[in-house]
Amino acid sequence: MKYLLNVAFLILGILSAGQSATGDESRGSLVRVRTSIQPYDQFRPWQKKSPFGLSGTGVVLPGGKVLVTASLVANRTEVGLEKPGSAEKSAAEVEAIDYEANLALLKPTDAEFLKGFAGVILGSNLKAGDTAEVWQLERNGEMLRNQAEVLSAGVGRYPSDEAGFLVYGVRVSLPKRDDSYTLPLMRNGQLSGMMMAYDRDSQEGTAIPVPMIEHFLRDSADGKYEGFPTLGVSWAPLRDPNLREEVKAPSAGGILLTRVNPIGTGGRAGLKEGDVLLAVDGFKLDEDGNYRDSLYGPTSIGNLVRTRPYVGTTSKFRISRDGKEMELTGSYDRRARDEVSIPTLQFDVPPRYLILGGLVFQELTGTYLQEWGDKWSERASQRLVQLFSFQQEMKLDPHKKIVFLSQVLPSAMTAGYQHLSGMVLMKCNGNPVGSLEDLAVVADSTTTGDLVFEFMDDPGKLVLDAGEVKLSSEKLAKAYGITALRKL
Amino acid sequence: MRIWIKVLSCACLGLGMVGCSKDAQLSEAKKNVVMVEVTSQTWDYRLPWNPGTVSSARGAGFVIEGKRILTNAHVISGARYITVQREADPRKYPAKVRFVAHDCDLAMVEVEDLEFFTGTTALLLGDIPELESVVSVYGFPIGGDRLSVTRGVVSRIDYNAYTHSGRESHLAIQIDAAINPGNSGGPVMQADKVVGVAFQGFRGDVAQNVGYMIPTPVIRRFLKDVEDGKYDHYVDIAIRWMTLENTAMRKYLGRPDDGLGVLVTDIFSEGSSDGILMKGDVLLSIDGHPIESDGSVRLQGQPVQLEEIVERKFAGDPVELDVWRSGKLEKVTLKLKPAEMFSMYEVLYEPSPRYVLYGGLVFQPLTANLMAVLAGGADLRLRQTYSLFGQDQIYRETPEPVILSAVLPDPLNVYLRGLAGQVVREINGKRIRTLADVEPALREGGERTVIRFEGDQRPAVLKKGDVDKAMPRIMAQYGISEPSRTDVADRRLAKGSYSRGDAK
To answer: Min CA distance, B266 vs chain A (Å)?
Structure first.
């Protein structure tokens, strides 16, 4: 058996080598993508950070659209396409983008720009052990075809650091040609994946696999992008026989649901904390949360519930509850991820803020917390970290935002308040605050008297003179060089 | 042998100071400064059943009236055997700790053999020395074995962290005399009086010529505290307050712009002010001293933080406050007590680590010591439980969070090892609020023990029969002689304000 497999590899190797010798399908399939990136400054929400440029290799699809990773175009100010081997350029716009799946579809603004490009079609799935090529563009437009081997295909982390999706681990020796490793993984002249990360020391990287790309392209085809569905549950493996007995699990298979978001796909289908989830959409789950994939073998439930179905697809769950097996149905959606008080992914959107007399209020996002660096969970305000990390168990209302005092701009108005930061605002003049708009409404309608801010934490209350806020705000903005006192 | 890195100074007083010659000071020091040699054991909170590692160290101390020896708490922490020795007498006398105050890093040591005191005269305590006045530090620092003297000036008098306890700050005096390992516990002298006890400094790669001594008000407080035969703890007013520098805030509170008063923003339940002060109170004076809007009061003409008034008092002492409440002036009196709810943040020295072992699962109360060994590995929930314990008054519901600190590998618990570091919520349906709840709860329930954790972790389930069988094996394997240590003799704990009924 082993021997046979080896033989198969050998043949594949010869085939692909033969291809690189004959064809030149690179022409008409790749473009260089140059982007100008300027992230927002979460700590000074009225300004952006310094801009920088990125470049990568985009794959031209039949129909004249270009596929790249989302990280290549995140927080862009400009996107440009460049034909290999010529200086011909066109601006491009982003037609669809998914930061979770790390994929983006670009459309040249010059409709004629990619005329004559045949484009690349999507190939078949790869599995561990398959060989492929990573195509690169030299500066002169020539093609570089680097032999690659798929080391693994399984559910892993994506750069958004939030979602677990199917990912290929790839071994390949890549010279540095661009400022990013957004490069196509090709096999037999067809697209088998998009490289999204690469480590030059270990010569290993990760690639977004075919099923992800396929899902992304099909979803975006109708012009209305919905994204990858999510189940909205936390679970634990059920290998432990004592635990199985305690939760009255059947003799084999299944995982224990330890938390179910009531508004998520699972929650609305009727899944409950403590249920043993035995099968999803007819696929049996083993005790570690894997189903048997026809191509990849044992694969995590993550692939089953996030990549295979689309938003709106019917979901079917087989569970054991208190020892009784039952079937529940519902439909897949993204509510557990989208309807949250504190969002994680914040690209391309400026941070919202409202400055009142030197008190800077912002809405809490994961992006803000990440601004504190790798050790954000130790360095940022512990209350903000807590609300973000445990928002579901703290039962935060998904329709209310967390408004917090991020910093105080010292002025005569804010004397005695300068050292305060990271405090969650609950009320302003007695009115509950569930968004910056709520706060703006109170502030705008109060022209005289006090503005009393009530916070969740010590010191509890701050007071500003509303009249003075109105009078001195412009002066304050000028002193600190802030162009706008609010961005809602 | 380690040599304690703190400072000891005994010196003559500055050149122009009254009343004492350099020779007189030196001769007093020679009679009364003692070398303290300590063999101690340090608990390992990773292996709480072990007696700990043995190490030896040297520090200094000095004789005060009543045949007592003063030194630093950190010199004698965890001591198993102590000897003291004087310059004039080659014999080493066994000594015992009489009182220890970890919160202000002071300790009193006594020697049974009164022969030791022959020829000692007892050093007297002086006052707070002037800035820039000269002091001398006496001790037995690294570099030799006999009495050493270094000299410097008083550089700064201010509040500073006392690093030994991990959370306390008291008045400390910074001096620029060389203070090196082995100086700890030694006297700092001016004229023929002790003006401080050398106790901490910076490592040479951080700062030079920065050493600290414990000033005499702190020493006197310690001596007075132990007069009744035991050391209580520093007391705390247990509130949070905010400066009142903001005009709009002052107006809102109905206070004139007179630069006086601070705003009470939080009151810790079970603390001295619980039920007496209220959020929103403006404190205008403390024991008759007007409080400035930055929180300072004048003591002997010097501005000090208002806490300094409380610092010098003892458990049970009253504090009188003028309070502006709901637009009216009121006088309130509160009775001071230690802030037990913050004791979790104190590094523990003497008490043996407490734990419960169950089928290889090690339960420990959350302590500063445990956090130190878990260090960076602690997960977010555990770190938050620790950092928000005081702020969120978690102690009201859970005076002593219990952590599954380790899972000692055994066939019994192969599926439970990933749970180490979790905060225990309940065992067999019983809410766990202190370590003392663990053992009774483990005996509850049916044939399985179910341990639930905070958050969305899976529960740990063990069969009681299996655990009973495995315990002798696990204890032998890991060299554990006692399945638990739960006595609370030395432990200070918040009481908690949950209803005892619901603990079932």
So the answer is: 7
Q: How many CB pairs under 8 A join A and B?
A: 91
Q: 3-class DSSP state for residue B360?
A: coil
A chain contacts of residue B448, beta-carbon cutoff 8 Å: 242, 245-246
Average pLDDT estimate for B355-371 = 96
The pLDDT-based confidence of A161 (bands split at 50, 70, 90) is low
For A237, nearest residue in chain B (alpha carbons): B458
List, for residues A60-116, the tens digit of each pLDDT value: 999 899 999 999 999 999 999 999 888 899 999 999 999 999 999 999 999 899 988
Does the distance separating the beta carbons of A258 and B249 come in below 8 Å? no
CATH for A453: 3.20.190.20
Q: Helix-strand-coil percent breakdown of chain A, rounded to 5?
A: 20, 35, 45
Q: Are A278 and A284 in contact (CB under 8 A)?
A: yes
Predicted pLDDT at B135: 96
User: Is A463's CB within 8 Å of B252's CB?
Assistant: yes
What HEC string does B388-406 produce? CCCCCCHHHCCCCCEEEEE
Q: How far apart are CA B407 and CA B362, in angstroms?
A: 6
Q: Is A394 on the interface with B (CB under 8 A)?
A: no
Lookup result for tokens 């600290």: B212
The pLDDT assigned to A20 comes to 40
Residues ≥6 apart with Cβ < 8 Å to B143 = B180
What residue ranges do the domains of chain B occupy?
Answer: 2-226, 239-335, 344-503
Phi, psi of A3 (to 5 degrees): -60, -45
Per the structure, the complete domain to which residue A294 belongs is given by 233-336
Contact B388 A386 (CB under 8 A): yes
DSSP state of A29: T
DSSP, res B422:
P
B465 lies within 8 A of chain A by CB: no
What b/e sequence results for B200-218 when a residue is b if at least 16 CB atoms lie within 10 Å of its CB, and e otherwise? Answer: bbeeeeeeebebbbbbbbb
Give residue B87's pLDDT: 87
A18 lies in a domain?
no
Amino acid at A437: E
Please report residues of B whose CB lies closer than 8 A to that of A457.
391
Tokens representing A278 are: 């035995």
On whether any CB of chain A is under 8 Å from the CB of B428, the answer is no
Q: Which uninterrupted H or E stretch holds B58? A: strand B53-64
Position A378 in a domain: yes
pTM: 0.89
d(CA B34, CA B199): 15
What are the beta bridge partners of residue A195? A183, A207
What per-residue confidence (pLDDT) applies to B202? Answer: 82
Contact (CB<8Å) B249/A468: no
The conformation of residue B183, written as its DSSP 8-state character, comes to -
C-alpha distance across the termini of chain A, in Å? 63
Helix ranges, B80-155 (H):
none
Top CATH class, B344-503? alpha beta
What local confidence, expressed as pLDDT, does residue A26 receive? 54
Structural domains counted in chain A: 3
Please say whether the dihedral angle defined by the alpha carbons of residues B21, B26, B28 and B29, taken in this order, is positive or negative: positive
Give the Cα separation of B354 and B364 in Å (integer): 6
pLDDT at A396: 93
Complex prediction ipTM: 0.87
Distances from the Cα of A402 to the Cα of A341, A383, A456, angstroms:
7, 11, 11
**Is A31 a domain residue?**
yes
pLDDT attached to residue A152: 94
**Amino acid in position A325:** E
- If we measure between CA atoms, which residue out of A335, A92, A76, A340 comes closest to residue A226? A335
**Tokens (6 digits) for A399:** 């329709």
Whole-number percent of chain B with pLDDT over 90: 76
CATH classification of the domain holding A75:
2.40.10.120
Q: Does A240 touch chain B (CB under 8 A)?
A: yes
